[in-house]
Fold this protein.
Amino acid sequence: MGITGWIDTARDLRGERAILQALAAALGPAAGSDRLDQASRHAALARRGRATGYADWRHPDRSDPDLMLLIDGALANRERLEEQLYQRARPLSSDAEVLLHAYRQWGAAMVDRIDGTYTIAVWDNLARQLLLIRDPLGAKTLYWTPCPDGMLFASRATTLLAHPGVDARVDAEGLNELLTLGPVCTPGHGVIAGVRQLLPGQLLRFTPAGMRLHRYWQLQADEHGQDLDATTHSLRQAVAEKTAPLRRRPAGAVLLSGGIASAAAAAFTTPLPVDGDRPAAYSLTLATPGSQPPGVGADVVAAAQVAGHLALNWTIVAVGADTLLDAAAAARTALDFPGPANLDATRYALLRRTAADGHTSVVSGDGVDAVFGGYRWLHDHEALAHDEFPWRPTGLCASDLLTDDARWHLIPGAYLKMRFEQAKEDVPALRGEDVITGRRRLMGHLALTHYLPQLLVRLDQLAAATGLNVHTPFADWLLAQYLWNVPHLLRHLLGVPSGLLRHAVADLLPAAATWLPSGPFPGAHLLPAWEQTQRERLLAISSDPAAPLYGLLHRTRVRYVMRQGPTVPRRAWHTTVAYLNEVNAWFDRHDVTLT
């Protein structure tokens, strides 16, 4: 779900409840205590969902609150904040109440004291000041757009379309974000014309005098200066501190892929076996166990070893094409922007099954590859040599199927190059680094600042749609900062991706599972029925004048390409075909106008 708000310093918003309720409804459905709408003279705020909170403070002589605060997410260092603010723990207070007191004590400087995954909005009525804050790694997201005498903001860009002052319009730059860069768009870009995204680690301050943006945190390059033993000790200590709250109050379930990421997350967040109920574990495979294509899906043998070692109640979730097509349709409504449907479908199917068993929280190993540098492109010299975003498909790209007029209008190659050069300028470097080390630093920075935030946000939105709160303990900004400066050979001991993590958890997991090479997350594109359905849908779009993408697609080129066999790599081909179908559905759902 999320949070949304409308600030107007020249207008009484207490009479605009219909618009506020429309904005709130656009965040997603919620019932009972999971929803709140609050309007004062100059601020109208709303929240939806279990993971959100609200608090306010007012002088007894004033009808309007002096301070109003929303949070989407959770604090990780709440106990420390309570000690600083109250000199004692306050277990009955909410994160929103603690943050409200933190703002009263420290003002905007509270960003230097808080930790967690969150977006926060604070309206200070006496100062006529709005603060918007996004967590350092961007696990939560927030979009904003200026309006006369004020500001609109929301956890989803498409939520803002519920306001009559925001048009569902996508211009050439937004189209390039969707069709040239998408689904990993430029950080800060809102795709919808006039809408911007708050960057990870960024604070926005709005007053009647104007608006200012401030980066309160970003990655810094530094010498590492530790040997293997010291690095391993620091890593174990950091992860233990990060996961301590999950050991005290364990999540009901963990997701196991058989890889080191999910196994390590389970090991650190699951208390030692004792009498009583144990957390559940879920692993997803395509079709039925043992019949999925070779090398994909959860490694059920390794997952079984981990589940047995940690005494988890393990379940295999087997899904076929019909289930995944249904899951993709449900995921589409859960997500703010179109994405890789082949991966969204499998993630949603697994989360939906977990929630159906009565769980409300789940632990995932997502984020490990970005934080530890386990992605293929950091280990492939050919991938390192290319001056482009490494996760883009090497086969068929969405822009390849556009008409010549559309390509002339968008100039996708030039747009891609411009955005990549801008991304390179943001990367801090160390003096004296050789070329390969510098390229790895660049690609690691891109993984953390571009790829990881969209992965975490999509996971969060999918989980919220199923009623789950997802915990990603390795997606931590302090851990990311530390490991980004650890030399490549130390991070990947023995030449094995994420070898340092494997070494650090060797005493917590079975040896066979610890050093097993990680496989890809199971994608629906590996099922023939899924592949055929996506081809048929794109062909139908290219022949339907009422389809939003009809005027942009080169029909002859689409038909020719769809008659060919899949290109290599297979995933790039079918990710692109399914993604174009998702973009068309997104345009249609939000009645988007192209300009």
